[in-house]
């Protein structure tokens, strides 16, 4: 149904690495599947959003679904909501229903229900979104369609230098400047936190490993909460003066610790390394 959350579901599927095509005429479903098959493994999972915006093309949808069920692994998801919920949503965005014409929003909804009744009855999954907010609907979509092994949170652990400014996209920021700076050790100055001698120097300082253990423990419930709220991407930043020594070494260690948490896939980005 229009207004039942198709954009939210489409975005959630894209976050799960599905290839999503919006407002596809039913007649293009077979060519889309053929294209995916020719692409081999490049498009392992595809989703098409088909609705009454297709106008005259939409009438062939039921016949096309029946045709595709033979020889194609297909799941039809129908998004529904009560009339009251749909009217409220259209009023909130101040847009007309695609079928209301010169009538009211409710007239359009009634007309759409009549056209979609057969599709709804033959759907594999019906999701009533009346009482779901966008985050809850995205979470439900992830529960239904996430591939086995798909991480709940794709985490970037970012090192940076405070003298170049705070990272604008960080969800959390930690400060590694409580540790002695290898810059003032002549034999370490030219090296970076990627080098073993610098990393060992940083991690052997009093409080370094204790900080990493405590900080990872503190972040564990945050990442678990992100997964419950379907926040699928996060950036945790840790900085030092120039982003060359301490923050680089600490970011690598923090990423290793957080990668051990369920549903977390952590990568490391060194924003300011090589900037000096």
TrEMBL record:
By what name is this protein known?
A: RNase adapter RapZ
Which SUPFAM superfamilies does its entry note? Answer: P-loop containing nucleoside triphosphate hydrolases
Where the record annotates domain RapZ C-terminal, the positions are 154-273
Positions of the RapZ-like N-terminal domain: 1-147
Give the binding site residues for GTP.
51-54
Q: Which organism is this entry from? A: Mycetocola manganoxydans
Ranges in a coiled coil = none
Q: Which GO terms describe its molecular function?
A: ATP binding; GTP binding
């Amino acid at each position: 149904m229009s207004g039942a959350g198709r954009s939210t579901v489409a975005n959630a599927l894209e976050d799960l690495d599905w290839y999503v095509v919006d407002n596809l005429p039913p007649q293009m479903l077979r060519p889309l599947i053929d294209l995916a098959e020719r692409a081999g493994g490049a498009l392992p999972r595809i989703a098409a959003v088909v609705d009454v915006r297709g106008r005259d093309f939409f009438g062939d949808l039921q016949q096309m679904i029946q045709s595709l069920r033979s020889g194609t692994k297909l799941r039809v998801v129908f998004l529904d909501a009560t009339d009251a919920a749909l009217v409220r949503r259209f009023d909130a965005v101040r847009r007309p229903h695609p079928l209301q014409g010169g009538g009211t929003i409710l007239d359009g909804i009634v007309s759409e229900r009549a056209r979609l009744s057969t599709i709804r009855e033959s759907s594999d999954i019906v999701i009533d979104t009346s009482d779901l907010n966008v985050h809850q609907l995205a979470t439900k979509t992830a529960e239904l369609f996430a591939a086995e092994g798909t991480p709940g949170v794709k985490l970037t652990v970012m090192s940076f230098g405070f003298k170049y400014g705070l990272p604008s996209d960080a969800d959390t920021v930690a400060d590694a400047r409580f540790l002695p700076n290898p810059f003032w050790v002549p034999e370490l100055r030219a090296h970076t936190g990627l080098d073993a001698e610098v990393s060992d120097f940083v991690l052997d300082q009093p409080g370094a490993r204790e900080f990493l253990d405590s900080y990872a423990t503190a972040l564990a419930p945050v990442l678990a909460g992100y997964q419950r709220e379907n926040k699928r991407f996060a950036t945790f930043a840790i900085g030092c003066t120039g982003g060359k020594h301490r923050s680089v070494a600490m970011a690598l260690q923090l990423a290793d610790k957080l990668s051990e948490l369920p549903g977390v896939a952590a990568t490391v980005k060194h924003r300011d390394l090589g900037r000096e």
